[in-house]
Description:
disordered C terminus; mainly beta; single chain; about 5% helix; 18 strands; 16-stranded antiparallel β-sheet
Amino acid sequence: xxxxxxxxxxxxxxxxxxxxxxxxxxxxxxxxxxxxxxxxxxxxxxxxxxxxxxxxxxxxxxxxxxxxxxxxxxxxxxxxxxxxxxxxxxxxxxxxxxxxxxxxxxxxxxxxxxxxxxxxxxxxxxxxxxxxxxxxxxxxxxxxxxxxxxxxxxxxxxxxxxxxxxxxxxxxxxxxxxxxxxxxxxxxxxxxxxxxxxxxxxxxxxxxxxxxxxxxxxxxxxxxxxxxxxxxxxxxxxxxxxxxxxxxxxxxxxxxxx
Length: 258
């Protein structure tokens, strides 16, 4: 499993088919719904990835160590994003319900599964302003909650997403939140790369809880994070008129967690 960090400072550019804002009385985090993109080396069988090339991405994939030995993909328990499971029913695995690729391709890689009345908590080492995930197959009760410490910032569910980017015939299901009826008269569950954004500093978060309320499961893949710039870095950017502080690197760096 890899964490990929693209170490350049640039404006966030996402090509999304829709953009939404969902608010309660105090907060108004927003999200975009799109198809995402292929893997960093053009892979089409690993689900959809973020188009934000400055993001930290956790893909849960198998990898190899320096001796060429296979290392099983897993959710990291150390480093920037630390995953903890409420019980043993949730897991990282490869299944038929994996989120699809950007054009609906079959995802044969490992992904995160959160099952009935369980949760996975992602604890982040620093404040973060954006989180993305390849979401699918969407199911009623899929729930994402954002926190700063123990303070709840906002919760999103399948019902808040509206229409997903695509509906794969790989994932048939009942008429329910996250599903759509296609030309054959059957209902299919939604897939899409969803990116959530803090709109101001009051909505920066350092913890995310992924949970499934009721029956079914919440499958996701290729989690991406954009951290809040360090104050010294932000001041440096202002000092040069908001220009580029670091030259964009041509090649991404990968840290093998195995």
